# Entry
Amino acid sequence: MTLATMQWIDLRVGDILTFAAENHGDREVVTSTGAGRVRRSYSDVYNRARRLSGGLAAAGFKAGDRLATLAWNHHRHLELYYAIPGIGAAVHTLNPRMPATDLAYMVDVAEDIALFFDSDLAGLAQEIAASCTRPLRLFELSDAEATLNGAMPFEALIWDSPGPADWVPVRETDIFAICFTSGTTGSPKGVAYTHRSSVLHAMAGCMTEGQRIGGEETVLPVVPMFHANAWGLAHSAPMAGAGLVLPGRWLDGPSLLNLIKGEQVSFVCGVPTVWQGILDAAGESPDFGSLKRAGIGGAAPSRAMLMQLESAGLDVFHSWGMTETNPSAGTGLLKSSHRDEPLEARVDRKLGQGRPVFGLERRIVSDCGDPVPRDGKTPGRLLVRGNWVVGRYLNADAGLEDGWFDTGDIATIDQDGYMVIVDRAKDLIKSGGEWISSSDLESRALSVDGILQAAAIARPDEKWGERPVLFVVCRPGFAVETEQVKHALAEQLPRWQVPEDIHVRDALPLTATGKTDKKRLRSELLALLADRQFA
Ligand code: AMP
# Structure
């Protein structure tokens, strides 16, 4: 006999938009089109998404299908975010910065049967369709007719829709979205998000001690809808009744600054490279208009960047996460007792990867799996588990052995719960049996005047096993000498940790999600070393 007396209602992402339309129907969703802007409201998005669901069903799509998107952040992508799960299918977001062969592989693994693509990505869509093993129905996300031969115009699904569809009452454990990891290490793996994981993740985003998305906020997600759900903002913003401003494909600093000021944006979320663009565009005495909060994540920002943003009056929200954690797994908010600390101390704390929010647990363990003390000093392998953490990769035979997901990151955690990512396990450099943290080397290099970007990797060494190699990119107008960097590092680090090899480059290779591509740097370095050996 059950004693529970409360209702059970499955958590479904579609209910978020229904709620927004009913309660925040006039709140705007603005999309930049480069030359202009498309203005919609949550009511419009809801009405079009339901008609779109009707159109998708009439076109023969049904519950359990997987439909892929290849699109920037805009209103049509948002409609697909809700209309596809609305018919009980899953939306598989593809990253247009990846090569066609990788994307075709993902389409095959996910068993996608349709691809919705932006007109400027038509060539890539065509290549994917030609490379994957089963036929893909193509829909072009254009205003009117499709430009690609064989593709249907997306709008026709809405014009020809038999009417708004009632959204399928799926179970909360059903898949509603799929995303592949960016492959910073190893090959991409698919993560299938459930309605439940994303609704809970969005609720955590709206918590005062979470991402703090509230109705007063106008959010500009520069973080892409094609990777890890744009940090959940396409769900948490409508849930909170916050305004949404979508940048389309105009992601350069001047365009973003213009959008921030023009649309009274209060919160922007982007990776450090995006913020660098915004800072460069803002110049020496930055005016960010209505902007109050700066969300940074996806990779570690430099101290200089946090200082610049905080000194300009912005409250930096630095968070950590992974595709496998939906993605937010750490809140960048300081504890209430630390919020009034002086600027320097606040910045030091915010440089770390934040505290946990309810629903997500973290542990750090040694290589043998023993717990490591939470003293803020002792590093260990970071394990997480929670309501929005992956349990098993798409189509993988086995899940997690003990329910804890090994992130591949090495971190310290202190008594207050603040975490600091010391490195990715695969990026640590082992020299003479001792570990050197690549991210520590990088952040110290970034503190040298005139250095814009830094990346440290290991090279094989006969005597020491591995030695660090540092690559740096100078700020425009600066010419930093490698000896200068070496000297600056030698003042801060034991001698054995200072790299003998420092290279100045024009740019660092980036992954499809804007992080330094260390896989590519390593293969470039190995090729260079081989050339030298045979020269
Ligand atoms: P992805 O799955 O592409 O989102 O990559 C996840 C990985 O990016 C994490 O395991 C971290 O190594 C790294 N990462 C994400 N956010 C941060 C951050 N704020 N600081 C440092 N590394 C980060």
In short: The mean pLDDT is 93.
